Protein 1
Amino acid sequence: MIGCGLFLAATAPAALAHDSLKSSSPAKNATVSGVQTIELEYSSRVRFPLVVLRTADGKTIQLGEPQADGPKVRTAVPTQLAGGSYVIAWRVVSSDGHPIEGEIPFTVKGAAAGATASATEAASAAPATSAEGTRPAAAAQGGGIPGWLWGGLAALVVAGLAVWLLSRRTSGPSGPSDPDSPVGPDGQPTAPTEQPDVPAGP
């Protein structure tokens, strides 16, 4: 009996020397909107941390290198987690040199998927709104006089002016010419010369 008591007294401190996980972020069985950093806090200083993140179907999510700082271990989650269930599996060496390990299940809300769907709907609605916004401008442009009509009117004006100038040039002020009137060297009619008075005979 005394030997059993001594044995229990000798082994009790060794059993109590094992470190344990005090808290975690995300917490066990918690529901969160997203995770950027996993933080584990133990009852004492730990070494050689190992942290693994898995989905419900066993797929491993890539994490940053875990860093031990006294009783705390931190590791980054570089990718955005989709909505669903996840499990954090951890393993460290406690201050007494014994390895300890455990798992932390948690859930991510499906808000990220909803936000992605909303962004997709907004992007698809934007081109339709832009197209509707351009319709009034196009209608306003269509209500004016087309350019080809202005060009046709200008051509008609030019043609009419040319006909008018040609008609004035061909019907210039020139009187009827006398065939008996003498013509000068330059082709212009000359004034008739006066004949001297001849006295009448007896």
Protein 2
Amino acid sequence: MVVNNPETLAEVEAVFKRYETALVTNDVETLDELFWQDERTIRYGGGESLYGVSEILAFRKGRSAAGLERDLDRTVITSFGTEFATASTLFRRDGASGKVGRQMQSWVRMEDGWRVVAAHVSIVDEPS
């Protein structure tokens, strides 16, 4: 298995950037598209544990569009072979002084493109 094949890595970096743009602009249609449309998809959020695409889609529709802008830090994307990758990043938001967000995603190449199959988002106190 090749780790960080340049072509695969470039594809995942591009789809991660597309996801990030959709997130901060509240482009729900693109966010929904980029998650695997399956009841085995998991998303753990800051205050929710979502099992299956139905719960994820319902969450997206009910989420406020306010305050989504953020700055990323220490983003690491790693591809394993040509079909699987992880994306991990820290993020900070204005108005959330002393807090840092952590986001991890597992991406899989499906027939219709790269899709998130599992995600975890949490907010913790900024380390001293």
Protein 3
Amino acid sequence: MDRLLKSISYIFHPLVMPLFGVVYYFSISPRYFPEEIIQAKLVALFILTIILPLLLYLILKLIGIVNTVNLETTKERIYPLLLNSVVVIIVLKKILTPSQSPELYFFFVGILISNIACLLLAVMKFKASIHMIAITGVFMFFIALSIHFSINLNDTLIFMAVSTGAVATSRLHLKAHSYIELIIGTFIGVIPQLILVTYWL
């Protein structure tokens, strides 16, 4: 059981969720994007949102700022969250534009806001669930896409609802978070996406 719940935490790891949202967007969007543009953006986002954070984590671990990839203490979270905010700003400045794909642009603005909120809470010694922030933010984005494009995404939304429950269960069972940390994480993930929907819906 523990192995299954750990696997769920790794499958829906916060690092992969933004790229998952982007891949899904390109797969269901009725907008036309040249294939080379899609490939270039996906490669750039893979490097910036997955490879670069992993390299930064290894550097932070090497110099003793973090101990584990789970960032178990609020002190360990500060520098990774700060660096991740910088990475998201680079994505917004160099990879995504509000004119070409407003949905993705504001999706990442929401990610940035959630990241900064989580960082501020870490500074105040509160450990909101980053897993819940990530998965609920993407879940809200998919709901908005369904409404925006008038596409029936019920299967995907059911999958995301079940996955969100599974992630919450895994974090509780593994004693990684308390109920309040999961609830706060959910709010931090959903509210920025919900507010920013008004700019592109």
Protein 4
Amino acid sequence: MLDRPATPAETKRAELQRRYREACDLFPDSRVELIDGRIVVREVSTGEHNDVVSRLILQIVALVASREWGLWTNIKLFLGPQIDRYIPDLTIVPRNRRMWGEDEVYGDSTVLVVEVVSKSSVRDDHVVKPESCAVAGVPLYLVIDTFKGTARLLSRPDGGSYAKEEQISLGEPLQLPEPWGLTIDTGKLVEA
């Protein structure tokens, strides 16, 4: 292999990765993500945000346990050659998942990725992250948007998009396809 100088794109990518690692070290108690070439530092989620995640967990935990899947709330998604690194609100992984290092799971080695939209993450959760997750082969990507009152399930990744999308109003049932075979009562996600 011949040594060659780094291209401007490689230099820029390496600098972004260096700054990302520094941000992770500077803000160990925050969510630090690389999204669309931006370093995004988010504070710890609100109680309402966590309530939505908790209520979803309560509906799926029996099935997750019976299949010996992992229910993770703080893991990075490894999306392949892209430089982005996302930390979903909830990631369900099979028992025999593939890892990239100790703190990143391959996107195509997940069973479900869930994002609960916050005021600062609307575009990222609805547009940017689904594109990268589709490229990485994340089989099911669920966006729960309490501001719009919707749940949006994306499935069948096909390149940079999902071949199937179902959007419902919160309060309607949401059927998770196989390997789940489970219906989520989305009304229970936002009940007071």
